[in-house]
Amino acid sequence: MKEKESALVCFSGGQDSTTCLYWAIENFASVHTVCFSYGQKHSQEIEVARAIAQKANVSFEVLDVSLISQLADNSLTNPTIAMDETKPEDSLPNTFVPGRNMVFLTFVAIMARTKGIRNIVTGVSETDFSGYPDCRDTFIRSLNVTLNLAMEEHFILHTPLMWLDKSEVWELSDQLGIFELVQNETLTCYNGIPAQGCGKCPACELRQSGLESYLNKKTNI
Amino acid sequence: MKEKESALVCFSGGQDSTTCLYWAIENFASVHTVCFSYGQKHSQEIEVARAIAQKANVSFEVLDVSLISQLADNSLTNPTIAMDETKPEDSLPNTFVPGRNMVFLTFVAIMARTKGIRNIVTGVSETDFSGYPDCRDTFIRSLNVTLNLAMEEHFILHTPLMWLDKSEVWELSDQLGIFELVQNETLTCYNGIPAQGCGKCPACELRQSGLESYLNKKTNI
Predict the structure, then answer these.
(1) pTM of the model
(2) What is the value of ipTM here, to two decimals?
Protein backbone atom coordinates (compact mmCIF):
# COMPACT_ATOMS: atom_id res chain seq x y z
CA MET A 1 0.00 0.00 0.00
CA LYS A 2 1.57 3.24 -1.17
CA GLU A 3 1.41 6.48 0.73
CA LYS A 4 0.13 9.37 -1.32
CA GLU A 5 3.24 11.38 -0.67
CA SER A 6 6.45 12.01 -2.57
CA ALA A 7 9.97 11.19 -1.43
CA LEU A 8 13.42 12.45 -2.34
CA VAL A 9 16.13 9.77 -2.19
CA CYS A 10 19.85 10.45 -1.64
CA PHE A 11 21.16 8.26 -4.39
CA SER A 12 24.72 7.26 -5.30
CA GLY A 13 24.19 4.14 -7.42
CA GLY A 14 25.62 1.86 -4.72
CA GLN A 15 24.05 -1.20 -3.16
CA ASP A 16 22.61 0.67 -0.19
CA SER A 17 21.08 3.65 -1.95
CA THR A 18 19.73 1.49 -4.79
CA THR A 19 17.96 -0.63 -2.19
CA CYS A 20 16.64 2.58 -0.61
CA LEU A 21 15.43 3.81 -4.00
CA TYR A 22 13.33 0.71 -4.54
CA TRP A 23 12.15 0.80 -0.93
CA ALA A 24 10.94 4.35 -1.63
CA ILE A 25 9.25 3.30 -4.88
CA GLU A 26 7.44 0.64 -2.85
CA ASN A 27 6.36 3.11 -0.16
CA PHE A 28 5.66 6.42 -1.88
CA ALA A 29 3.47 7.55 -4.75
CA SER A 30 6.21 9.60 -6.41
CA VAL A 31 9.98 9.29 -6.07
CA HIS A 32 12.83 11.65 -6.98
CA THR A 33 16.58 11.13 -6.64
CA VAL A 34 19.55 13.40 -6.04
CA CYS A 35 23.18 12.43 -6.46
CA PHE A 36 26.14 14.38 -5.08
CA SER A 37 29.26 15.29 -6.96
CA TYR A 38 32.06 16.30 -4.61
CA GLY A 39 35.28 15.69 -6.46
CA GLN A 40 35.35 12.01 -5.62
CA LYS A 41 37.88 9.91 -7.47
CA HIS A 42 35.27 7.70 -9.08
CA SER A 43 32.95 10.01 -10.95
CA GLN A 44 31.63 7.11 -13.03
CA GLU A 45 29.61 6.49 -9.88
CA ILE A 46 27.35 9.28 -11.12
CA GLU A 47 26.78 7.61 -14.50
CA VAL A 48 26.01 4.30 -12.81
CA ALA A 49 23.46 6.12 -10.63
CA ARG A 50 21.92 7.88 -13.61
CA ALA A 51 21.45 4.59 -15.47
CA ILE A 52 19.75 2.94 -12.49
CA ALA A 53 17.46 5.95 -11.99
CA GLN A 54 16.48 5.88 -15.67
CA LYS A 55 15.65 2.19 -15.47
CA ALA A 56 13.60 2.84 -12.33
CA ASN A 57 11.84 5.69 -14.14
CA VAL A 58 12.49 8.30 -11.44
CA SER A 59 13.85 11.82 -11.78
CA PHE A 60 17.61 12.22 -11.30
CA GLU A 61 19.53 15.37 -10.37
CA VAL A 62 23.21 15.93 -9.65
CA LEU A 63 24.28 18.54 -7.12
CA ASP A 64 27.83 19.84 -7.09
CA VAL A 65 29.04 20.08 -3.52
CA SER A 66 32.72 20.05 -4.40
CA LEU A 67 33.31 22.85 -1.90
CA ILE A 68 33.49 20.10 0.67
CA SER A 69 36.78 18.83 -0.75
CA GLN A 70 38.28 22.31 -0.31
CA LEU A 71 37.55 22.03 3.38
CA ALA A 72 39.06 18.69 4.35
CA ASP A 73 41.71 16.49 2.77
CA ASN A 74 41.08 12.78 2.91
CA SER A 75 41.47 9.67 0.83
CA LEU A 76 38.07 9.73 -0.90
CA THR A 77 38.76 13.07 -2.55
CA ASN A 78 42.55 13.30 -2.51
CA PRO A 79 44.21 10.85 -4.96
CA THR A 80 47.58 11.19 -3.18
CA ILE A 81 46.26 9.50 -0.04
CA ALA A 82 45.95 5.71 -0.15
CA MET A 83 42.59 4.14 0.60
CA ASP A 84 42.57 2.58 4.02
CA GLU A 85 39.38 1.79 5.80
CA THR A 86 41.01 -0.34 8.44
CA LYS A 87 41.15 2.08 11.29
CA PRO A 88 43.16 2.26 14.46
CA GLU A 89 41.14 1.85 17.65
CA ASP A 90 39.43 5.07 18.76
CA SER A 91 39.94 6.92 15.48
CA LEU A 92 37.98 7.36 12.29
CA PRO A 93 38.72 5.67 8.96
CA ASN A 94 40.59 8.04 6.66
CA THR A 95 37.81 7.91 4.05
CA PHE A 96 35.76 10.00 6.48
CA VAL A 97 34.93 13.55 5.37
CA PRO A 98 33.81 15.19 8.61
CA GLY A 99 30.30 16.57 8.34
CA ARG A 100 29.79 15.25 4.81
CA ASN A 101 26.40 13.65 5.40
CA MET A 102 25.24 16.70 7.29
CA VAL A 103 26.04 18.97 4.34
CA PHE A 104 24.45 16.54 1.87
CA LEU A 105 21.28 16.09 3.86
CA THR A 106 20.89 19.82 4.47
CA PHE A 107 21.10 20.49 0.72
CA VAL A 108 18.67 17.63 0.08
CA ALA A 109 16.23 19.18 2.55
CA ILE A 110 16.49 22.59 0.86
CA MET A 111 15.88 20.90 -2.49
CA ALA A 112 13.00 18.85 -1.09
CA ARG A 113 11.37 22.01 0.24
CA THR A 114 11.45 23.67 -3.20
CA LYS A 115 9.70 20.57 -4.58
CA GLY A 116 7.12 20.48 -1.80
CA ILE A 117 8.46 17.12 -0.59
CA ARG A 118 8.79 16.33 3.11
CA ASN A 119 10.01 12.72 2.96
CA ILE A 120 13.78 12.28 2.59
CA VAL A 121 15.32 8.83 2.26
CA THR A 122 18.97 8.06 3.00
CA GLY A 123 20.81 4.76 3.13
CA VAL A 124 22.95 5.50 6.18
CA SER A 125 23.41 2.63 8.60
CA GLU A 126 25.12 2.41 11.94
CA THR A 127 25.28 -1.37 11.84
CA ASP A 128 28.39 -1.94 9.74
CA PHE A 129 30.23 1.37 10.05
CA SER A 130 29.85 2.83 13.48
CA GLY A 131 33.08 4.73 12.75
CA TYR A 132 31.10 7.39 10.88
CA PRO A 133 29.36 9.60 13.42
CA ASP A 134 27.13 11.20 10.79
CA CYS A 135 25.67 7.81 9.86
CA ARG A 136 24.37 7.12 13.35
CA ASP A 137 20.73 7.12 14.31
CA THR A 138 21.17 9.72 17.05
CA PHE A 139 22.78 12.13 14.61
CA ILE A 140 20.01 11.62 12.05
CA ARG A 141 17.31 12.30 14.65
CA SER A 142 19.08 15.43 15.86
CA LEU A 143 19.54 16.58 12.27
CA ASN A 144 15.84 16.01 11.59
CA VAL A 145 14.92 18.35 14.45
CA THR A 146 17.50 20.95 13.38
CA LEU A 147 16.29 20.92 9.76
CA ASN A 148 12.71 21.39 10.86
CA LEU A 149 13.70 24.28 13.12
CA ALA A 150 15.89 25.83 10.41
CA MET A 151 13.12 25.94 7.83
CA GLU A 152 9.94 25.68 9.87
CA GLU A 153 9.13 22.49 8.02
CA HIS A 154 8.09 18.97 8.89
CA PHE A 155 10.70 16.90 7.12
CA ILE A 156 10.79 13.19 7.89
CA LEU A 157 14.17 11.55 7.43
CA HIS A 158 13.73 7.88 6.53
CA THR A 159 16.65 5.48 7.10
CA PRO A 160 15.39 2.04 6.06
CA LEU A 161 18.87 0.47 6.42
CA MET A 162 19.81 1.96 9.80
CA TRP A 163 19.61 -1.31 11.72
CA LEU A 164 20.34 -3.78 8.94
CA ASP A 165 23.67 -5.51 8.41
CA LYS A 166 24.86 -6.16 4.86
CA SER A 167 23.27 -9.58 4.76
CA GLU A 168 19.92 -8.04 5.67
CA VAL A 169 20.36 -5.36 3.00
CA TRP A 170 20.74 -8.14 0.45
CA GLU A 171 17.62 -9.75 1.90
CA LEU A 172 15.68 -6.50 1.58
CA SER A 173 16.79 -6.09 -2.04
CA ASP A 174 15.57 -9.64 -2.71
CA GLN A 175 12.19 -8.86 -1.11
CA LEU A 176 11.97 -5.76 -3.29
CA GLY A 177 12.64 -7.86 -6.41
CA ILE A 178 15.94 -6.18 -7.25
CA PHE A 179 18.45 -8.76 -6.06
CA GLU A 180 19.93 -9.22 -9.55
CA LEU A 181 19.85 -5.52 -10.34
CA VAL A 182 21.87 -4.84 -7.19
CA GLN A 183 24.28 -7.66 -7.98
CA ASN A 184 24.91 -6.63 -11.58
CA GLU A 185 24.36 -2.89 -11.92
CA THR A 186 25.34 -1.09 -8.71
CA LEU A 187 28.76 0.30 -7.84
CA THR A 188 30.02 -0.05 -4.28
CA CYS A 189 33.74 -0.71 -4.88
CA TYR A 190 36.21 1.96 -3.72
CA ASN A 191 38.23 1.27 -6.85
CA GLY A 192 35.31 2.18 -9.11
CA ILE A 193 34.55 -1.28 -10.53
CA PRO A 194 30.77 -1.95 -10.79
CA ALA A 195 28.94 -5.13 -9.76
CA GLN A 196 31.29 -7.55 -7.92
CA GLY A 197 33.99 -4.86 -7.91
CA CYS A 198 37.70 -5.38 -7.25
CA GLY A 199 36.93 -7.89 -4.53
CA LYS A 200 39.73 -6.57 -2.37
CA CYS A 201 38.76 -3.17 -0.97
CA PRO A 202 36.84 -3.00 2.33
CA ALA A 203 33.57 -2.11 0.53
CA CYS A 204 33.86 -5.16 -1.73
CA GLU A 205 34.74 -7.42 1.18
CA LEU A 206 31.74 -6.21 3.17
CA ARG A 207 29.41 -6.57 0.19
CA GLN A 208 30.69 -10.07 -0.60
CA SER A 209 30.61 -11.41 2.95
CA GLY A 210 27.07 -10.01 3.36
CA LEU A 211 26.03 -11.72 0.14
CA GLU A 212 27.50 -15.05 1.22
CA SER A 213 25.83 -14.79 4.58
CA TYR A 214 22.46 -14.02 2.98
CA LEU A 215 22.75 -16.82 0.42
CA ASN A 216 23.66 -19.28 3.19
CA LYS A 217 20.64 -18.20 5.18
CA LYS A 218 18.36 -18.45 2.13
CA THR A 219 19.61 -21.95 1.29
CA ASN A 220 19.06 -23.18 4.84
CA ILE A 221 15.44 -22.01 5.07
CA MET B 1 40.69 38.79 30.24
CA LYS B 2 41.16 36.75 27.13
CA GLU B 3 40.54 33.06 26.90
CA LYS B 4 43.47 31.14 25.53
CA GLU B 5 41.37 29.69 22.73
CA SER B 6 40.81 30.60 19.11
CA ALA B 7 37.52 31.56 17.48
CA LEU B 8 36.22 31.53 13.93
CA VAL B 9 33.81 34.39 13.16
CA CYS B 10 31.14 34.31 10.42
CA PHE B 11 31.87 37.68 8.93
CA SER B 12 30.02 39.66 6.26
CA GLY B 13 31.29 43.21 6.86
CA GLY B 14 27.92 44.36 8.19
CA GLN B 15 27.16 46.09 11.47
CA ASP B 16 26.28 42.89 13.31
CA SER B 17 29.18 40.69 12.23
CA THR B 18 31.69 43.53 12.64
CA THR B 19 30.50 43.93 16.22
CA CYS B 20 30.85 40.17 16.66
CA LEU B 21 34.36 40.27 15.22
CA TYR B 22 35.49 42.81 17.80
CA TRP B 23 33.62 40.95 20.54
CA ALA B 24 35.64 37.87 19.55
CA ILE B 25 38.91 39.84 19.51
CA GLU B 26 38.04 40.95 23.05
CA ASN B 27 37.27 37.41 24.22
CA PHE B 28 39.67 35.09 22.42
CA ALA B 29 43.42 34.87 22.02
CA SER B 30 43.30 34.31 18.27
CA VAL B 31 40.53 35.22 15.82
CA HIS B 32 39.85 34.09 12.24
CA THR B 33 37.06 35.17 9.90
CA VAL B 34 35.17 33.52 7.07
CA CYS B 35 32.93 35.29 4.57
CA PHE B 36 30.41 33.60 2.31
CA SER B 37 29.96 34.22 -1.36
CA TYR B 38 26.62 32.88 -2.59
CA GLY B 39 25.77 34.85 -5.70
CA GLN B 40 24.36 37.77 -3.73
CA LYS B 41 23.63 40.93 -5.67
CA HIS B 42 26.06 43.01 -3.69
CA SER B 43 29.42 41.31 -3.98
CA GLN B 44 31.20 44.48 -2.89
CA GLU B 45 30.06 43.30 0.55
CA ILE B 46 33.01 40.89 0.37
CA GLU B 47 35.51 43.69 -0.29
CA VAL B 48 34.09 45.73 2.58
CA ALA B 49 34.50 42.69 4.83
CA ARG B 50 38.06 42.08 3.63
CA ALA B 51 39.06 45.68 4.39
CA ILE B 52 37.64 45.52 7.92
CA ALA B 53 39.37 42.19 8.59
CA GLN B 54 42.69 43.61 7.39
CA LYS B 55 42.31 46.62 9.66
CA ALA B 56 41.49 44.30 12.58
CA ASN B 57 44.53 42.19 11.68
CA VAL B 58 42.66 38.89 11.54
CA SER B 59 42.74 36.20 8.88
CA PHE B 60 40.04 36.40 6.19
CA GLU B 61 38.77 33.62 3.94
CA VAL B 62 35.96 33.57 1.39
CA LEU B 63 33.97 30.41 0.83
CA ASP B 64 31.92 29.99 -2.32
CA VAL B 65 28.57 28.48 -1.41
CA SER B 66 26.81 29.63 -4.58
CA LEU B 67 25.21 26.21 -4.89
CA ILE B 68 22.64 27.58 -2.49
CA SER B 69 21.27 29.97 -5.10
CA GLN B 70 20.68 27.03 -7.45
CA LEU B 71 18.39 25.56 -4.84
CA ALA B 72 15.99 28.37 -4.03
CA ASP B 73 14.96 31.52 -5.87
CA ASN B 74 14.52 34.60 -3.77
CA SER B 75 15.11 38.31 -3.84
CA LEU B 76 18.61 38.32 -2.28
CA THR B 77 20.08 36.24 -5.08
CA ASN B 78 17.67 36.77 -7.96
CA PRO B 79 17.85 40.30 -9.42
CA THR B 80 14.44 39.91 -11.10
CA ILE B 81 12.62 39.78 -7.76
CA ALA B 82 12.06 43.09 -5.98
CA MET B 83 13.38 43.50 -2.44
CA ASP B 84 10.52 43.39 0.01
CA GLU B 85 11.13 42.71 3.64
CA THR B 86 7.66 43.72 4.72
CA LYS B 87 6.04 40.36 5.10
CA PRO B 88 2.44 39.23 5.20
CA GLU B 89 1.29 37.78 8.51
CA ASP B 90 2.35 34.14 8.99
CA SER B 91 4.83 34.09 6.16
CA LEU B 92 8.54 34.74 5.76
CA PRO B 93 10.13 37.79 4.17
CA ASN B 94 11.12 37.06 0.57
CA THR B 95 14.78 37.76 1.28
CA PHE B 96 14.79 34.49 3.18
CA VAL B 97 16.88 31.65 1.70
CA PRO B 98 15.57 28.62 3.55
CA GLY B 99 18.30 26.80 5.41
CA ARG B 100 20.96 29.34 4.48
CA ASN B 101 22.40 29.82 7.96
CA MET B 102 22.37 26.10 8.52
CA VAL B 103 24.48 25.52 5.41
CA PHE B 104 26.84 28.38 6.31
CA LEU B 105 27.33 27.28 9.89
CA THR B 106 27.89 23.66 8.90
CA PHE B 107 30.65 24.72 6.49
CA VAL B 108 32.11 27.00 9.15
CA ALA B 109 32.18 24.09 11.59
CA ILE B 110 33.94 21.85 9.06
CA MET B 111 36.45 24.63 8.46
CA ALA B 112 36.87 25.28 12.20
CA ARG B 113 37.59 21.59 12.75
CA THR B 114 40.40 21.59 10.17
CA LYS B 115 41.92 24.56 12.03
CA GLY B 116 41.54 22.92 15.43
CA ILE B 117 39.08 25.65 16.52
CA ARG B 118 35.99 24.85 18.57
CA ASN B 119 34.59 28.35 19.13
CA ILE B 120 32.33 29.66 16.34
CA VAL B 121 30.87 33.16 16.50
CA THR B 122 27.81 34.26 14.54
CA GLY B 123 25.83 37.50 14.65
CA VAL B 124 22.37 35.98 14.39
CA SER B 125 19.71 37.58 16.54
CA GLU B 126 16.11 36.71 17.14
CA THR B 127 15.31 40.11 18.56
CA ASP B 128 14.74 42.14 15.41
CA PHE B 129 13.99 39.48 12.80
CA SER B 130 11.98 36.67 14.28
CA GLY B 131 10.85 35.95 10.70
CA TYR B 132 14.05 33.98 10.07
CA PRO B 133 13.75 30.60 11.76
CA ASP B 134 17.45 29.86 11.32
CA CYS B 135 18.38 32.94 13.36
CA ARG B 136 16.52 31.80 16.46
CA ASP B 137 18.17 30.64 19.64
CA THR B 138 16.39 27.28 19.65
CA PHE B 139 17.64 26.53 16.15
CA ILE B 140 21.21 27.48 17.05
CA ARG B 141 21.20 25.24 20.11
CA SER B 142 19.78 22.34 18.14
CA LEU B 143 22.37 22.93 15.40
CA ASN B 144 25.14 22.96 18.01
CA VAL B 145 24.11 19.50 19.19
CA THR B 146 23.76 18.20 15.64
CA LEU B 147 27.19 19.50 14.62
CA ASN B 148 28.80 17.89 17.64
CA LEU B 149 27.10 14.58 16.88
CA ALA B 150 27.99 14.81 13.17
CA MET B 151 31.69 15.26 13.81
CA GLU B 152 32.22 13.96 17.33
CA GLU B 153 33.43 17.39 18.30
CA HIS B 154 32.75 19.94 21.02
CA PHE B 155 31.93 23.04 19.05
CA ILE B 156 30.55 26.00 20.95
CA LEU B 157 28.36 28.34 18.92
CA HIS B 158 28.56 31.86 20.34
CA THR B 159 25.77 34.33 19.51
CA PRO B 160 26.64 37.56 21.33
CA LEU B 161 23.80 39.49 19.63
CA MET B 162 21.02 36.92 20.11
CA TRP B 163 19.07 38.95 22.67
CA LEU B 164 20.14 42.46 21.68
CA ASP B 165 18.01 44.88 19.70
CA LYS B 166 19.71 47.21 17.21
CA SER B 167 20.12 49.97 19.78
CA GLU B 168 21.92 47.53 22.07
CA VAL B 169 24.16 46.37 19.20
CA TRP B 170 25.22 50.01 18.74
CA GLU B 171 25.84 50.18 22.48
CA LEU B 172 28.01 47.06 22.35
CA SER B 173 30.04 48.45 19.46
CA ASP B 174 30.58 51.63 21.49
CA GLN B 175 31.76 49.58 24.48
CA LEU B 176 34.15 47.72 22.17
CA GLY B 177 35.57 51.01 20.92
CA ILE B 178 34.40 50.56 17.34
CA PHE B 179 31.36 52.85 17.22
CA GLU B 180 32.88 55.04 14.48
CA LEU B 181 34.27 52.09 12.55
CA VAL B 182 30.79 50.56 12.46
CA GLN B 183 29.23 53.87 11.47
CA ASN B 184 31.67 54.61 8.66
CA GLU B 185 33.04 51.36 7.30
CA THR B 186 30.42 48.60 7.53
CA LEU B 187 27.85 47.70 4.89
CA THR B 188 24.35 46.76 6.00
CA CYS B 189 22.24 48.34 3.23
CA TYR B 190 20.34 45.98 0.91
CA ASN B 191 21.19 48.33 -1.95
CA GLY B 192 24.92 47.89 -1.38
CA ILE B 193 25.74 51.39 -0.11
CA PRO B 194 28.25 51.34 2.79
CA ALA B 195 28.04 53.36 6.04
CA GLN B 196 24.66 55.17 6.29
CA GLY B 197 23.45 53.33 3.18
CA CYS B 198 20.44 54.25 1.03
CA GLY B 199 18.42 55.17 4.10
CA LYS B 200 15.29 53.62 2.65
CA CYS B 201 15.61 49.84 2.65
CA PRO B 202 14.49 47.89 5.74
CA ALA B 203 18.10 47.22 6.82
CA CYS B 204 18.94 50.95 6.70
CA GLU B 205 15.76 51.87 8.55
CA LEU B 206 16.49 49.36 11.29
CA ARG B 207 20.12 50.46 11.57
CA GLN B 208 19.16 54.14 11.68
CA SER B 209 16.33 53.81 14.19
CA GLY B 210 18.60 51.70 16.42
CA LEU B 211 21.28 54.35 16.19
CA GLU B 212 18.86 57.16 17.10
CA SER B 213 17.52 55.14 19.99
CA TYR B 214 21.04 54.47 21.29
CA LEU B 215 22.17 58.08 20.90
CA ASN B 216 19.05 59.26 22.75
CA LYS B 217 19.76 56.85 25.55
CA LYS B 218 23.42 57.89 25.70
CA THR B 219 22.54 61.61 25.80
CA ASN B 220 20.04 61.08 28.60
CA ILE B 221 22.49 59.25 30.88
Answers:
(1) 0.87
(2) 0.86
3-state secondary structure of A177: coil
User: How sure is the predictor about B45, in pLDDT bands with cuts at 50, 70 and 90?
Assistant: confident
For residue B98, the enclosing domain spans: 6-220
B185 domain residue, yes or no: yes
Give residue B71's identity as a one-letter amino acid code: L
Cα distance between the two ends of chain B: 27
Q: Is residue A16 part of a domain?
A: yes
Give chain A positions within 8 Å (CB) of B71: 107, 110-111, 114
Q: Which residue of B has its CA nearest to A64?
A: B67
Q: What type of residue sits at position B182?
A: V
Q: Is residue A194 part of a domain?
A: no
Nearest to B149 among A71, A138, A149 (CB): A138
Q: Is residue B1 part of a domain?
A: no
Task: Please give the tally of structural domains in chain A.
Answer: 1
Q: To the nearest whole angstrom, how far is the Cα of B142 from the nearest Cα of chain A? A: 5
Which chain A residue's Cα is nearest to B73? A114
Tell me the per-residue pLDDT of A177-200, one tens digit each, with 9 for 90 and over.
999 999 999 999 988 899 999 999
**How far does B123 lie from chain A, in Å, by closest CA?**
16
Q: A23: domain CATH number?
A: 3.40.50.620
| Closest to B20 in 3D by CA, of B108, B123, B144 | B123
**B85–chain A nearest CA distance, Å:** 17
